[in-house]
User: Fold this.
Amino acid sequence: MKEFLEFKLLEWGNYLLTVGDLVIVFLIFGGTKILSWLIRKAYNKRFSGTRDNRGRKFALIRLTGYIIWTFSLLMMLQAAGVKITLLLAGSAALLVGIGLGLQQTFTDFLSGFILLIDHTIEVDDVIEIDGMVARVENIGIRTSTLVTRDDISVIVPNSKITGSNVINWSHTKEHSRFHIPIGVAYGSDEELVRKVLLDCASDHPGILKQPPPFVRLEEFADSSVNFKLYFWTSEVFRVENTKSDLRFSVVKKLKENNITIPFPQMDVYVKQVP
Assistant:
């Protein structure tokens, strides 16, 4: 058995790789896989249920995995007979040159670690960046995957997320406030309009009862009296569907109550000049 483990697989100058070295490498690799699986299982048991827990679990699994596999790779290289100190010293100048050429890539890597550690943006968060509303599907070490409302995957460099003004609709609460504008004709019963709008909001299953919806009379415009119906919903990502349902319901109930939604109009008087 000893002779088998000391059998030379590769000999090149001062470098020597034996069967025993290769066995140790495979043992380290297998042990790392088992350790990663156990840690993932422990995190899945510890963090479950809420969106915050899912995001935290994802970040911890990723960071722990990066750390474990980094040390595992160093141990496997050392077990294979590669001198880590000499390798790092010999490649220092090369790494500097690569770093200058791939500066943006390293910035993305650093931004990835910031996103995983900072927790300001997590998996399943609904964010708005550069006018695009999307859900965070995955946070990688260099790029993140966002899914838009059209179910289109967008790959975004991490530095763009950390370096831009990002609206996180899911950061503090699982629900957000939205509104839809409505204009009615002059002469309409304003209190009846408010009642109709609140009834429409209360009938929609996707709109929260608490905080309750409310109506504001915004302005007296040229052709209409303008209201806004405000409501809270936890269906942030698909809120446009909720808004559309509300508009259908509002139009129907306004017609039932003989309340007119006017179109822009202008009266022109022609004066005859003798």
